Amino acid sequence: MLTYSAKRLIGLLPLLALISLGAFVLTYLTPGDAAIVIAGESASPERLSEIREQLGLDQPLIEQFFRWLGNAVRGDFGRSLVIDRDVSELISARLGPTVSLVLAGMTVAALIGIPAGLVAGRRPGTLVDRGVTFIATLGIAIPSFWLATILISTFAVQHRIFPAIGYVSPFDDPVAWMHRMVLPAIAIGAASAAEVARQTRSAVSDVVQLDHVRTSRSLGVTDRRIMWKHVLKNAAIPIVTVLGLQIGRLLASGVVIELMFGIPGLGSLAVNSVGARDIPTIQGIVVVVALFVLLTNLVVDLSYAVLNPKVRYQ
User: What are phi and psi of 60, to 5 degrees?
Assistant: First the structure.
């Protein structure tokens, strides 16, 4: 198990380096000038040249990258060009709300998607199966921002059951955090729940038609025991896989959801940084989000070894 974990962890390093290179190069290919962001458009050419020299922007791109990468490995992404604070501090302050929103959305996806997929997959081709499949397809097609608008209008404006905007840390007030996270979690997690339901239904419907499951049912074994002992055990890997894949979807949807519900997370910081061409902040956000996704995929890979010991020797 340790060897398997070490191999998966080492395999992430080249991918993270490649992502870092892409983030660095792409931000410098976009239009604009960091020196103008700092000094203003009315600055003299001499002042702009001085700022570029201070920032190292006059050096070759490859030298700039390796200097930035060396600092990034130590957790130093430089200073924001707009707010004049360390990028690491800005990201640390915004990371908590984003992670809590993603976890809340993942909880909604799992609590709704897995049971719905199990119910549909147990009896393929039945009316329940077709109903779940139709609702799941509809859920995938509904944009998260449109669903968020409906939720805010119905449950925050008309009935005043949940607040429309604002964020409270779960460490400060867990009850208030849950109360404020209900609508954002549903808005961001609905499409993921639909995808999880579809994939769970597909995995379960394949397993229930296997010979050993059909034999157990013919011998009088209860459906509950069959589901827990045979079906879920064999369908667990596809379910875990689709849950892990939802992290990227949730992070992407979270940008809009954070803005709509006034959640001070990485999404709103990223939008503001792109608008202001705050290159160090953009680069830091890309690397942190990529690292979060990669670590999630690592957890998924390690779960394979727990669910199926044969994976450890591949």
Answer: -60, 150
